[in-house]
Amino acid sequence: MSFSDQADRTLALLAVTPGWQRLRSLRQDCDDETVAAIVGEAASFAERVLAPLDAVGDRIGCRIENGRVVTPPGFAAGYRQFAAAGWIGIDVGECHGGSGLPLAVQAACAPLFERGCMSLMMAAGSARAACHLLAAVADAETADRWIPKLLAGDWAATICISEPDAGSDVGRIRTAAAWHDGIWRVTGQKVWISFGDHDLCGRIGHCLLARTGEEAGTRGLSLFLVPDRHADGRPNGVTPERIEEKMGLHGSPTCALRFEAAEAILLGEAGRGLPQLFAMIEQMRLQTGGQGLGLASACCDIAEAYARERRQGGAPDAPAVPIAAHPDVRRQLRSMRHRTEILRAAHLEIACAMDLARIAQDPPDRAAARDFAGTLLPLIKTFGAEAGFDIASAGIQVLGGAGYTKDWPLERHLRDARVMSIYEGTTGMQAIDLLARRLWRDGGMGLEICLERAAADIALGGGALARSGMEAVEEFRALLAHMQALKATPEAGLERADSFLRAFWCLVSIWMLRRLGSVGLGEDELRQSVDRLRAELALFGRLCR
Amino acid sequence: MSFSDQADRTLALLAVTPGWQRLRSLRQDCDDETVAAIVGEAASFAERVLAPLDAVGDRIGCRIENGRVVTPPGFAAGYRQFAAAGWIGIDVGECHGGSGLPLAVQAACAPLFERGCMSLMMAAGSARAACHLLAAVADAETADRWIPKLLAGDWAATICISEPDAGSDVGRIRTAAAWHDGIWRVTGQKVWISFGDHDLCGRIGHCLLARTGEEAGTRGLSLFLVPDRHADGRPNGVTPERIEEKMGLHGSPTCALRFEAAEAILLGEAGRGLPQLFAMIEQMRLQTGGQGLGLASACCDIAEAYARERRQGGAPDAPAVPIAAHPDVRRQLRSMRHRTEILRAAHLEIACAMDLARIAQDPPDRAAARDFAGTLLPLIKTFGAEAGFDIASAGIQVLGGAGYTKDWPLERHLRDARVMSIYEGTTGMQAIDLLARRLWRDGGMGLEICLERAAADIALGGGALARSGMEAVEEFRALLAHMQALKATPEAGLERADSFLRAFWCLVSIWMLRRLGSVGLGEDELRQSVDRLRAELALFGRLCR
């Protein structure tokens, strides 16, 4: 039931997302009925096929046996079904065998899948990212050979960036590629590789950053495709050395891999490895936001249903009342629901913008959409991750002792969610991205566009809510000028980057709240939420001074 | 090393706790040297004996075998050693075989033990609570028979309150005691019983609330001691039915127990079960605060040490710098450390007050100490619990991917900590306790005393910090009047209870910050923290309006 509720909320919010209206005018094939059918089918698939795998994956986890990673029972079959249903390629170009739908449609479906089984979706996410990456930068032969196999679930892929001494600091990668006798060979160690090895399918292509030049930092890095074995099945010098024992996400084997003179295909231009990866990194950050949204949606639904059923308190000589009737529980549930729906609205907003950055007709429109999306991305990544974790924790609180047990999925969701603030760029990196890159380096054009759109949307509604929202916009504008000025003293600025990121999210949340009427939230409770968000904006604004 | 650091910080803060100075004047035996020796020995014991058990307890957990609970390897021996060293009875009266030291000394040691192995300490905590309870309300024969056995670790105890339909809502307890042929017999089910069964020692006494009267609610409840078996070893109708599968605290078996006509000893007066338990409940809430403090201390130390060692970032052509040098990491570490030391100071403050409530010479002094301690207690319970969880999570963030693995204890501490906001009265119940009981029902005398003492301490220091602190006191005083007025509209008040609790903690934190110079925090960073806390106070104050 709640998967289909989630689908309904998604469609209701999509309908009031301005970017979606623009996108639809460019994509006649994406009529309401088609999209509703797709999202509805995603909900059904997630509930039927993926959800039953989640607890199994957590309980049994992965292990290395005879040098290969064994995934939990049912994962391989689930993965094949996911691929066969065409879900990996929703937004991959038709020329490569995908469905060629907008990213927005993919983003509408993804949180349903993440809710179903986030750990298995780590494999699907890498395959999809690799498809996009290969479509963008690989030579035609490589793309034509790999993308259809990835879409079919016959082959899989990983993204290999981190190394023991190069986590957030990508420039210190030491894995090296050498050109010899017309063949690139990669040697080195990669860590934190999700599904770095597994038994879901027949072959794994590692999309990997390695050093090809002498230049220090990121400039000497190139991008390669390194298959774990040759087409004929012979091994290619790639060894899974270890699976990390993690707090959660046990169904997703996080591997340390050793590459020993592994044959590799150069992707795109030598020395342009990192810039070529950027589009893929953006996709992964959006995916993280969707993971958080999926888990937050689940936890909200569970807590609400529990609070309607569970009876405690009330007059001692009368039957106990549902705990949802207690003011403090009501407050908790409302806060969880609002955070979740705000995130859902923002997640759709940014996905539409990422589409428009690609397909809007005028170049200035495309540039504006790109700046806008790039500026929202650190927010979606950070607060999607935090919402997943916090709302799982809030759900546990509503359920009390029961929530702390494995009788309910909340504690699993909390453990799974904790990593989301770390991978794909930690919260600290997102804060630096917003401040140092988007504002200081790029001049804050994306922030300016956000403020204009927020102001326009907020003003539309009129009334007290609009007045309060407009004040928030002005407050944030003043903060922006302050943060811009800190460019002169970067240490002081960077120490405030986290508060700035949070202040910005308060503003975007106030903006998105305007849309939540469409998912049934009343004017009164929206006003309360705006008040709360304004108080939080004031807090973070103050911490930035 | 870090256990002894923690002991040093504790002693430094104790020395500047005003209540401790007063207490020492009443207890000549508690000279500095003696107390330092005790706390130092606690640190050493925790590190040597308890800490090695923690990971084992988490990994192996507990199971039911042949109808009895089997605890993790080493737990039974550790428990015996803990008891043999006299730690269970630090503050239990000498007349009962304890050391008769102030609670403050116990509270100085407890977070060290909790840091060592919180799950095993759940057993010790129940035994100690039972000693206090029996000393207060049991007949002399029962007390004399049980307390020495509990202190020696030969026997153990539990506190049985919750039932499937009576969690926060104690008045709905259905377990009943019947008086027949001169014997009380208890029948019913109890859930969430920590160490409800185990193999640590020979006999378990269940301190249990059961219904003896017809009256609805809590009035018909009486307190019993129900041994799991008779003195000769015959079973007494107590069966562990289940161990909960929890997110953490695996070393502590959380049991569902069935009592079938189990022979029971009435403790104190029939119908006075709940009021008689209150002192014990207060002890358990203080213990929870100490648990959070112990875990927070561990996580702080680990994150600081890691950030000094781990190198990432800096100029690409220079060696990487320790991550502690990055402004955002510095900010994270500082925030963790300040929260931890504020909690430590407040924990000692309240423990001293609980002692003074018992032994101060003038009755008005005792009453004031009681009101004061009772008012601080919901804070220590709530924010001790939250600090344990949040600082474990913050520590994971500092360590990045490594923190998410079982290579480090942070993820275990996070899982263990999550239950602390639930048991011994959820955060929601603490907020109601502060607002509806301390302020509305009792008139807020304890809050008034807090404000007076805070103002006096804050004013002492002088300077900008004192001015800002005094403003905070005035702000909170205004908030207090507002919340008092909400007594007329209790629903509206209760919806704000959580924010009120948080606002109060901001104020107490500002007050405690004054003492942190003694643990080496500089004036500048203290001022930053006061600014942050004042901004948070403003936020929560606003949410109360």
TrEMBL record, chains A, B:
The residues covered by the Acyl-CoA dehydrogenase/oxidase N-terminal domain are: 37-154
Q: What is this protein called?
A: Alkylation response protein AidB-like acyl-CoA dehydrogenase
- Source organism superkingdom: Bacteria
Keyword annotations: FAD, Flavoprotein, Oxidoreductase
Q: Where is the Acyl-CoA oxidase/dehydrogenase middle domain?
A: 159-260
Sequence ranges assigned to domain Acyl-CoA dehydrogenase/oxidase C-terminal in this UniProt record: 271-438
Q: Which SUPFAM superfamilies match?
A: Acyl-CoA dehydrogenase C-terminal domain-like (SSF47203), Acyl-CoA dehydrogenase NM domain-like (SSF56645)
So which cofactors does this thing need? Answer: FAD
Q: Which PROSITE patterns match?
A: ACYL_COA_DH_2
Q: Name one Pfam family in it.
A: Acyl-CoA_dh_N
The organism encoding this protein is Rhizobium halophytocola
**Coiled-coil residue spans:** none
